[in-house]
Specification:
alpha+beta; single chain; 12 strands; 2 domains; about 25% strand; 6 helices; 60s Ribosomal Protein L30, Chain: A; CofE-like fold
């Protein structure tokens, strides 16, 4: 019998290139194993979600404005790319060494407002973040349930840097059916002392674990995670929005 505390991350088979208006939920349902269960979690890379929702731009269609031209010259960037970043961000927090740290309209703080040129089939195409990643997760969950009669939790993930550490790791930017934060405040630690601030970022930890199960160039955007039934909920829940730190609590501002 499997240890109830263990988890298993299995990438689903590669998907074909996803384009706007594709039935992503149906594609994932077709790739899912026959034993997909309500207590499972599907972690889906945001790029395929964005592509299916038409969140794409061509550099050729972007007209840089004065601010973008100035920033591009300072940081040796394509002014069209800088303009696309500025249009996706609510506030430019930092600009250094060609990286723009932005707060997006969603409230996410990330590099380049999530605008990305990697893993796209068209040379000058940009992938933007979904308009509402939590809503995207809810739609995918409902679509998978419609296709298979099974309602797993769904996470939408993206790679983020961390203020205190080097490297990138995947985090959850959208969620449906998973407890995003497990608050341990008030519980005793292993020695009986009361925990005062501990909150486990469940959704981010699951997104990071799933990313280790697939290579960045594998074309395997969906990962099945088993063993997290204790965090899966029937309702869609508060989504990944619950993980965003309010600006007034941001120690780096």
């Amino acid at each position: 019998m499997a240890d109830p505390r263990s988890i298993e991350c299995l990438p689903l088979p590669p998907l074909p290139d996803v384009r706007p208006c594709d039935d992503l939920a149906g594609m994932i349902a077709s790739a899912a194993p026959v034993d997909l269960a309500p207590g499972h979690v599907l972690v889906i890379a945001h790029k395929v979600v964005s592509k299916s929702e038409g969140r794409l731009r061509r550099l050729a269609d972007v007209e840089p404005r004065e601010r973008a031209v100035r920033l591009a010259a300072e940081h040796r960037k394509d002014p069209r790319l800088v303009q696309a970043v500025l249009e996706e961000c609510e506030e430019l927090l930092r600009a250094r060494d060609g990286v723009f740290i932005c707060r997006t309209r969603h409230g996410l703080v990330c590099a380049n407002a999530g605008v990305d040129r990697s893993n796209v089939a068209v040379e000058d195409e940009l992938v933007l973040l979904p308009e509402d990643p939590d809503a995207s997760a809810r739609r995918l969950r409902a679509g998978i349930e419609h296709a298979l009669g099974v309602r797993p939790a769904v996470l939408i993930s993206d790679s983020f840097g961390r203020a205190w550490r080097l490297g990138q790791t995947d985090v959850a930017i959208g969620a449906a059916g998973l407890v995003p934060l497990d608050a341990w405040r008030g519980r005793p630690d292993a020695y009986g002392r009361e925990l005062r601030v501990t909150e486990i970022a469940v959704a981010d930890a699951v997104a990071a674990a799933a990313d280790l199960a697939r290579a960045k160039d594998s074309r395997e955007p969906a990962v099945l995670v088993r063993g997290l039934e204790r965090y899966v909920t029937e309702g869609d829940g508060p989504g990944a929005a619950a993980l965003r730190r309010p600006p007034e609590q941001d120690l780096f501002r």
